[in-house]
């Protein structure tokens, strides 16, 4: 039975996802601990036998047996069982020049190998070949769906509008108001690099000295909404 853990990570908290690595119920530790203990006990028994029980000539035979088993163990590499690409396949993949994406090449390899296996009689009949191709098409459709999820991004205008709406809701944006010297015949100069020498005059006050200051951006409501907006913004900028 599947053990759910979504309730433990429903709320963002410090170290929330790291605590999942220590769970026992439904974990990989509970699934494999018996096999691990059996392997550890076997390894420990062989190691103690080799070091303290066997004679010197018996150790030589044991070492030859270990080398023999190690050579045959490499005939079926773990990378092949896991479906990883071999070095020869990687060279062929990288040497193929194409103006389009090359993610479809392994599917072509699979199709050619399936057709060759049918010709050599390794695939029993055309019905079995058809089932293989249907599984390939199902796998290809899932990969295509995943590719489309990554390809379609949220328009920037949605992010900007939502960001401005939250800032306006909690007064995080400066108020748009007319400058107090807008209608003055001799307006005061603003605080700029060109007026820096006027700062030494005690009576000088630039046109922005009484500008309304917004509340702090770290107010609790705004701090709650801002992380919710920050995630799509970061995903959009990195896409």
Summed up, the domain count is: 3
Proportion of beta-strand residues: under 5%
Helix content: 55-70%
Cα radius of gyration in angstroms: 34 Å
User: What is the tally of beta strands?
Assistant: 0
Average of per-residue pLDDT values = 72
Q: What form results from the Cα inertia axes? A: extended
The helix/strand series, from N terminus to C terminus, equals: HHHHHHHHH
Biggest sheet statistics: none
From the structure provided, what is the oligomeric state, counting identical versus distinct chains? Answer: single chain
**N→C terminal distance:** 37 Å
Structural class: mainly alpha
Query: Uncertain spans, ≥5 residues at pLDDT below 50?
Result: 213-224
Summarize the structure.
Helix content is 56%, strand content 0%.
What does this structure look like?
This protein is an all-alpha fold. It has three domains: 1-75, no CATH class; 83-152; 156-238, no CATH class. Helix content is 56%, strand content 0%. It contains nine helices and no strands. The protein has helices at residues 16-19, 28-52, 56-73, 78-81, 87-95, 105-119, 126-151, 156-169, 220-238. The two termini are 37 Å apart.
């Amino acid at each position: 039975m599947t053990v759910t853990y979504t309730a433990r990570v429903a709320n963002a908290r410090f170290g929330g996802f790291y605590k999942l690595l220590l769970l026992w119920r439904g974990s990989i530790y509970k699934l494999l601990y018996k096999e691990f203990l059996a392997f550890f006990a076997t390894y420990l028994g062989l190691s103690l036998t080799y070091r303290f029980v066997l004679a010197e000539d018996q150790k030589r035979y044991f070492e030859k047996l270990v080398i023999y088993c190690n050579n045959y163990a490499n005939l079926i590499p773990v990378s092949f069982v896991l479906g990883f690409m071999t070095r020869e396949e990687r060279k062929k993949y990288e040497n193929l020049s194409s103006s389009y994406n090359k993610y479809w090449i392994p599917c072509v390899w699979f199709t050619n190998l399936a057709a060759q296996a049918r010709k050599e009689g390794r695939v029993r009949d055309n019905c079995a070949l058809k089932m293989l191709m249907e599984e390939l098409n199902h796998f290809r459709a899932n990969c295509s769906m995943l590719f489309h999820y990554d390809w379609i991004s949220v328009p920037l205008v949605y992010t900007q509008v939502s960001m401005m709406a939250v800032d306006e809701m909690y007064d995080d944006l400066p108020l748009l108001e007319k400058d107090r010297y807008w209608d003055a015949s001799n307006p005061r100069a603003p605080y700029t690099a060109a007026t820096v020498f006027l700062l030494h005059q005690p009576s000088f006050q630039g046109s922005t000295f009484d500008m309304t200051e917004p509340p702090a951006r770290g107010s609790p409501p705004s701090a709650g909404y801002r992380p919710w907006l920050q995630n799509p913004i970061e995903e959009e900028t990195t896409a």
